[in-house]
Amino acid sequence: xxxxxxxxxxxxxxxxxxxxxxxxxxxxxxxxxxxxxxxxxxxxxxxxxxxxxxxxxxxxxxxxxxxxxxxxxxxxxxxxxxxxxxxxxxxxxxxxxxxxxxxxxxxxxxxxxxxxxxxxxxxxxxxxxxxxxxxxxxxxxxxxxxxxxxxxxxxxxxxxxxxxxxxxxxxxxxxxxxxxxxxxxxxxxxxxxxxxxxxxxxxxxxxxxxxxxxxxxxxxxxxxxxxxxxxxxxxxxxxxxxxxxxxxxxxxxxxxxxxxxxxxxxxxxxxxxxxxxxxxxxxxxxxxxxxxxxxxxxxx
Length: 300
Prior knowledge:
- The chain is 38% helix and 23% strand.
- With 300 residues, the chain is α/β, with parallel strands linked by helices.
- Helix 7 packs parallel to helix 9.
């Protein structure tokens, strides 16, 4: 097997210990042609100094402005491409990789030139045998659905399989995809951006594949995960943006709007949903901002 250059891009914002642990797992990787870029987003916890001391071989770029997950990672992706990376691995700082994770993904990617994006089998870090994502698919109304989410790993995935999208906590992208379809759409800022990137690649003829032999553990989303209102905002606005950008059928867009309006009504009038008032406001804000073409960071 050939060993094309892989450049890993990690975004860190005041997550020093998680980033150190992630880099340590990368150091244990058995893939022989790997470089790493850490993008530091104005950390105040001593991250830069600690990372430089522990991993002097890692390139650290201190960002000058916060462009969100999308725009910040694009800084690293652009740098990786300039370094002649054959593959760019966009990786969350709160992940731990098995030593053969990258080797297994690259073996699959290099076996088929039409494979443009790959992802590992992702487990919950606090429940190491419980699947967080085996790749994602789109529901009939363009819902983003993780395959096998919260299922025990019982060998139900034993072969690489085609999916609609890959979880953004670890997404391996071929250089040719970036050159053809571009980088992450910075309008998204956060949430749905990797989903849209995969959709864009798939619409241009690239295959998106999950590799179950490549294993990774993600700390950020536990089984009892309760997202903040900001996630409701970005999820609402950016799903609508994705449907508009990719010309979803009219009935899909109509259903999505009716679904949102029904949820808004329920969260407003039903006493049992009083706890959802902040989420209701965030959803409404996301709908309005979509209609007004207001992108980027959620208004404070």
